């Protein structure tokens, strides 16, 4: 992405470092305020109608609404969510740098914000936006193992596939506002990594094509074999994994009937 590299060279000094810690800090603050004042979330959610009435802070504050609940209760669920959010954001920043992470998260935020304002689906915005962080992290560290609930070992790529399955399931359970929000939000990931996926897929197709062409060229014609055991008559056509050797007598034998060397005499 040459345009992004040029932008980083020019504006990289403006990057916000430690974006993950900032997100976690504000998520924790919102959670504390929510416990003290339960109506706090109502003032932070991305509500298009209220934004049009002048409550423009909602265009930003929706990203600080944390995930709640979980099978282990609200408090532990909140703890796992914050640790997970910081882990993937910090890892992605390490992989692509602070500036590119800012652009990555920022473009996703703007895309989901515009989509929610005009097409609905605002309630899904925080979940979809943080999903792009997971997919970006899995792109660079697919085999990294995390311990869910500090017990169950999971590779990041498995977690990403599970998240993708949940997102697709949402297309069945929810309406078009969710589907449009999903497409818009995931376009951020495709903007950054879509070309790499395309080039990798193209390379795999080319490798497969070259392998098939090579195998077709070296494959003997029907009925013609390159190896045949002088004892049992087995050929590579009958056993593709058989090993053949030429003995001192000039004849070819399979591994089962290869003559043993005669013992040396004094």
Give a structural overview.
By secondary structure, the protein is mainly alpha-helical. Helix content is 60%, strand content 5%. It contains 9 helices and 4 strands. The chain has helices at residues 2-11, 19-36, 48-52, 58-61, 74-96, 98-119, 125-140, 156-173, 176-218, and strands at residues 145-148, 152-155, 244-246, 252-254. The strands form 2 sheets. The protein has a two-stranded antiparallel ribbon with strand order 1-2. Strands 3-4 form a two-stranded antiparallel ribbon. A hairpin with a 5-residue loop joins strand 3 and strand 4. The termini are far apart. The mean pLDDT is 82.
**Gyration radius over CA:** 30 Å
Strand numbers in spatial order across the main sheet: 1-2
Oligomer type: single chain
- The helicity comes to 55-70%
Average pLDDT metric: 82
Task: Provide a count of the helices.
Answer: 9
Molecular shape = elongated
Structural class: mainly alpha
Number of DSSP-assigned strands: 4
Distance between the termini: 76 Å
In terms of per-residue confidence, which ranges show pLDDT below 50 for 5 or more consecutive residues? none
**Estimated share of beta-strand residues:** 5-15%
- Element-level helix/strand string: HHHHHHHEEHHEE
Q: Quick one: biggest sheet?
A: 2 strands, antiparallel
